[in-house]
Amino acid sequence: MFTLSARQGLLALVLALATPAGADTPVPSQAEWDAARKTVTTADGQQLSYVEMGRAEGQPVLLLHGYTDNSRSWSLLAPHLAGRRLIALDLRGHGGSAAPACCYGIDSLAQDVDGFLAALNIDKADVIGHSLGSMTAATLAAYHPARVDQLVLVSTAASVPKAGSDWLWDNVPKLSHPIDPNSEFMLAWYWNPTPVAEDFLSRERAESAAVPAQVWMGVLKALTLTDWSPLAPRITAPTLVLWGDQDSLFDAASQTRVKELLPTARHETFTGLGHNFFWEQPEAAAQMINGFLAP
Predict the structure, then answer these.
(1) What does the alpha-carbon distance between residue 84 and residue 290 come to, in Å, rounded to a whole number?
(2) I need a surface site. Which of 93, 111, 184, 286 has the fewest CB within 10 A?
(3) Which active-site residues does the annotation give?
(4) Residue 294: per-residue pLDDT
């Protein structure tokens, strides 16, 4: 059974003693992120880690990251999502969460998320998902509509376009583990059209490179078969869809399809930004999200 490291336990104790009940929990620094993780085990035995930030009594907002990212993915955006209880989850196989041999489809990930919310005694939350996390969030909203208050899909698609899928299949099965975080592939995987804070980005690459081989391949195999479009009519939560028009993975045609599937959603485009636009311009992304989530 997984246990917190001594460093994680010490930081958790310090934060608990330093933060009065109901007060804000600060967003950890990049250096503090690992130690800020907490763990929980769902009723069906999946061990998940997460980082909690913000207002303890605020509206719960669950943050779901992309393929081979982890909860740190939200560290640039989180400081600008004020007044809410932010919970950044490590999906199975990512970050500090357990990495079983299977299963990495969005149905399994959504089931994990439902179990995670139950384990934290959260009946309903706003859910923000990025890329793989957005597909998982859409599936959660369709399968468990009572769980999702408002839904934000960041850099989403109903299925992975052929060009993106082909590029992944040309590269991921050939990866030599452990992966060099500064390899040509990893630099391309974390390419952004405008600058992103290097202290954050270098840690993201290193953590992505450390993701186990069965997770890299498990997600890729599952994504190749993924198309959540039949679930779209079951999504009843108010929905915001955000996309950067320089997204190298999910193209403009995929966004046209999402608009067809979610015609009542609000759709917004960030011009000149890429798949990770909320890293490139976190304040602008947060302004859009805060405006949507405002009561």
Answers:
(1) 10
(2) 184
(3) 131, 275
(4) 82
